[in-house]
Amino acid sequence: ELARGLAERFDLPAEEGGELTRIAQYAALMKGSGPLYDELHELLAARAAATSIHRFFAALPRVLRERGVPQQLIVTTSYDLALEEAFLAEGEEFDVVSYLAAGRNRGKFCHFGPDGTVRVIDVPNMYATELELERRTVILKLHGGVDPAPERDWESFVITEDDYIDYLPQSDLATAVPVGLAARLRRSHFLFLGYGMREWNLRLVLNRLWAGAPLNYRSWAVAPAAGPVERAFWRGRDVELLEASLEEYVDSLARHAGVGVEALQ
C-alpha cells in the first residue's frame, strides 16, 4: 500500500519495479530526501488507525500487571503510529525507542518517554534505568517512524536501498539498543506476526539482531500462507511457522491470554 502511494506521487517509471525500497530510492535520488519524507509523513498519517492486532497488544499490559510479570517488548519495522494510538486509547503508558536514519545522530536510537521527553541514546550500554520493562511496555521501532510533532525533528525512516546498506554499519543491533533491551532480546521467545522471510530487508535486520546465529529460545512466526522457500527460511532460523490469518490467530491468542474479545473491537 505504501509502495503504491509513493509510486503514484513520484510518477515512478514502470521499469523501476514495485518494491518499496526501490521506489523510495528513486524518489530520494530524483526529488530529494525532503520531498520523500514529506510524502511518507502524509501517507502514513492517513493509515494510523489501530487494528484488532494493535488493540490486542494495548490490552495486554493490564493482564500482565494482574499476573505480576514484566511488560512487553514489542519490536516493529512499521513506520506509522497505529500501535501508539492503540496504547493511548487504552490509557496505557509506554516508551518508544526509535532508530535515527538521518541527521547528526544517524545510526543511534532515541527514546520517547511517556512524559513527552526525547533523548538520544549516546551510550547504549549505560542506558538502563531509563526504561522500565517491569512497569511499562517498550516499543522498539527498528526502522524509525513518523514524528507527530509539528516540527518533525525526530522523523526518520529506513526505507531506501541506501538506508538499508548503511543500517547499523560496523555493528549489530544488540550493541546499539539500550542494554536492558539487548538483554531482553537475547533471552526471549519471539512471535513474528506478518513478516515474510523472503524479504531481504527483514533478513538483514535479523542478521543485525542475532549476528547470523539461530535463536536461543523457541520462537514462532504466523503467516497466512507460506510457500516452500518461506518455510525453508524460517526453518533455517529454528522458528516454527504457523499458517493462519493474523486476525484469527490474535483473536485466539487473546481468548487464551484472558483478554476480552470486546477489547479488540
Please give a structural write-up.
- The protein has helices at 2-9, 20-31, 33-45, 52-66, 82-90, 161-165, 173-176, 179-186, 200-210, 228-236, 246-257, and strands spanning 73-76, 94-99, 109-112, 118-121, 137-141, 144-145, 156-157, 191-193, 219-223, 239-243.
- It is α/β, with parallel strands linked by helices and 265 residues long.
- The strands form three sheets. A five-stranded mixed β-sheet has the order 1-5-2-3-4, with helices on one face. Strands 8-9-10 form a three-stranded parallel β-sheet, with helices on one face. It has a two-stranded antiparallel sheet with strand order 6-7.
- A hairpin with a 5-residue loop joins strand 3 (109-112) and strand 4.
- The chain is globular, with a radius of gyration of 18 Å.
- It starts with a helix and ends in an 8-residue tail after the last helix.
Count of discrete alpha- or pi-helical segments spanning 4 or more residues: 11
* Spatial gap, N to C terminus: 23 Å
Low-confidence stretches: none
Summarize the biggest pleated sheet. Answer: 5 strands, mixed
Strand order of the largest sheet: 1-5-2-3-4
What order do the helices and strands follow?
A: HHHHEHEEEEEEHHHEHEHEH
Helix content: 40-55%
Attribute tags:
single chain, 265 residues, alpha/beta, 5-stranded mixed sheet, 3-stranded parallel sheet, 11 helices
Task: Summarize the helices and strands and which ones pair or pack.
Blueprint: H1 2-9, H2 20-31, H3 33-45, H4 52-66, E1 73-76, H5 82-90, E2 94-99, E3 109-112, E4 118-121, E5 137-141, E6 144-145, E7 156-157, H6 161-165, H7 173-176, H8 179-186, E8 191-193, H9 200-210, E9 219-223, H10 228-236, E10 239-243, H11 246-257
Parallel strand pairs: 1-5, 2-5, 8-9, 9-10
Antiparallel strand pairs: 2-3, 3-4, 6-7
Helix pairs in contact: 1-2, 1-3, 2-3, 4-5, 4-11
